[in-house]
Amino acid sequence: MKLLVLFDNHYPEGLAMANRLQLYARALQSVGVEVTVLAGKYKKLQADKKVFMGHWYYSIDLSTPLDKIPFITRFTKGFAQKKLLMHLEAVSKDYDVIWSIGYTWKALLQFSAICKKNNSKLIIELNEFPHSVIASRMQTEKGNERLRKKLFEQAYPVLDGFVVISDKLGNLAANYKSDSAKTIKVPILVDTHAYAEKENIREKRFKAPFLFHAGTLTEEKDGILQVFEAFGRLSSKYPNFRFVLSNKVTLPHMIQQIDAVIDKYKIQDKVVFYSHLSREAIHEHLSTCACVVINKPDNLRNSYNFSTKLGECMSYGIPIVTTPVGEAANYLMDEQNALLVNSTDVDAICEKLSFILDHPDAAIQLGNNAMQTARQAFDHLNYAAALKSFLEQL
User: How much is the pTM?
Assistant: First the structure.
C-alpha cells in the first residue's frame, strides 16, 4: 500500500496540521503503509525525496517569474496549479491512494479526474466545518457559503473517502458523499510518549505557578477575553501567579481589549507575551505550567471541531479548565480528567483556577487522569491498524 499526501502548506516544519500529518504518517508507516508527502509550499525547495521520521517528503517548484510582482500572485495561481496537476498526472499511477489536504473544491475535482484515469483513490480529511472562518478582508459570509455549496455538492460526491475528527463532521460527509465512499473517524492525535511527564511534577508545576496559553488570541475560537478577566480577578489573591502567552498575534481590536483588561487590573508585570517560542520552549512551558484554560465558546465552528491543543495538554498531564463543546465532550469528565465550565462564566473559571492553585495534590491527580485519557483515546499508534484497513477498503 502506497499513499501520496498532497499537502498545501509547509512540511515537515509548519503549523498544527503539519504536526498532525506527521502523526498520520508515522502511524501508517508503523503498519507497513509507505507514505510520501508532497508539500505545496516550502521554505526551501526540496526536489529530492528525504526521509522524515520514517516517511518520505519532497516539494516541486510551483513558482513563476511573475510571483514577485505585487498584486500579481492571485493571477499566477493557475500556472502553479497546472504544474501540480502535471506532476500528479505523472506520479499518481505509482500510488494506491492520494490524500488531499488544504486544496480547494476545484482542485479536488481535478485531482479526482486524474485519480480515476490512473486507477488510484482520492481522500480528504475534515478537521473543521468548511469555510467557517473569515480569514481575510476579501472574504465574506456569503462568499464562504458559496464555497461550501461548491465543496458539498460538487467535490464531496467524487471523493472515495473521508477522514473526520468528530461525529458531526462524519455526519456532514455522510450527507454529501457517494454511497461507495468510506469514512473513518480519527480524533485529535498526539504522541503521548513524547509528552510523558518526568518526576517532581508538583515541584515543577507549583513552585512558581503560571497559566500558559499557546497559539493565537481569538474570542470566537478561544474565548480569550474571559481568560484574561479571570486571571485579572485572581491576581491579588495569588500574587506569585503569572499568565504566560506564546505570542501576541491577533487582530488590532483584540489587542486593545486585552490591553484594557490588563490595565483594569494593573497586571502588566504578571502577564508575559513572547514574540516567538520554539517547539522546545513550548515543550518546556507545557511541562512546567500549573494549568491551562482552553475556553472554547459553543458556536458553529467549535461544535464541529476538536481542539488539538486539548489533546496535547492532556498528554502533558496538565490540570485543565475547559468547556465540554463539540467532540471534546465525548472524552471529558468533570473533576475526573478536567474541570468543566461555561465559556462565558468568568466566576466559574476563577473558581476552577483557585481550586487548582489551592489543591496541588488534587490538581496533579486531575492531570494524571487526563494523561491516561490521552494515551487511551488520542495516541496516534492506536489508530494505525484502522487507518490501514480504511485505505485498503476504498
Answer: 0.89
